[in-house]
Amino acid sequence: MKKIGQGRTAEIFQWDENRILKLFNHGTKMDDVKREFEINRDLAKQKMPVPDVFDLIEYNNRLGIIYEQINGQTLTKLISSKPWKILNEARRFAKIHRKFQSKISFEIPRFKVKLMRNIKTSNILDINLKNSLFKYIETLPDDEILCHCDFHPDNIMISDGKMLVIDWMTGAKGHPISDVARTSVILKFAVIHEEKSYIEKKIINLLRNKFYLEYIKHYMKLSNIKIQDIEQWELPIAAARLSEDISNLEKDILLDYVERRVENIS
């Protein structure tokens, strides 16, 4: 098979003329792969804007999912090549995020439980800070709404002008605003790759901030919420992100943010 792509958790291969194989890295848990497959399958049955999914297989001792091949580009690439579209695309991004936020009938992990587990496994946070965060999470609202938990422009494919949402491995159920806050933390704190020049970093940060502000503004308009509703979730989400595979610089920035914010809840 011909390799046509590479992500953080999987390689992408051409399976046949119209389908691709997403082949997960060795060590990827069956529960995680199965969750991605089942969420995507359920959404496809509902005619939601996701790729069609065909099968969950094992290939060369690795787990894989066979998907419809989407001919297009990520939202990140689109707005990088056509920055004049950034405001319109940010509004479309908010609209499609809102579109997916409906109650689900199938069983998947709770977002609050995932947050607590990730905070617990962090080797950066001390026990007192963790306990404060656990108590704070318990005070936040909960729901049965589908959350992507990794909703950002690299997980949006643009094909024939339409947006399709991919990579549902991290899917969970919870309060819809928690998922918006997760997107907010990613967009506000993600560190740009070291190999970029100073000028490139400045331009990317400018575009990303412009995208973020328009996305948040439009989402609040669509859902009739306030910025404070989103911000109350950002503290535990930033803390939980410290257990993820991100750069040390990003962890330092997030830790500083968490330590400053947690003083206000203690």
From TrEMBL:
Gene3D superfamilies referenced in this protein's UniProt entry, alphabetically: 3.90.1200.10
Pfam families: APH
Occurrences of domain Aminoglycoside phosphotransferase (ranges): 138-183
Residues annotated as signal peptide: none
Organism expressing this protein natively: Maledivibacter halophilus
Protein name: TIGR02172 family protein
Ranges annotated as spanning the membrane: none
Highest taxon in the source lineage: Bacteria
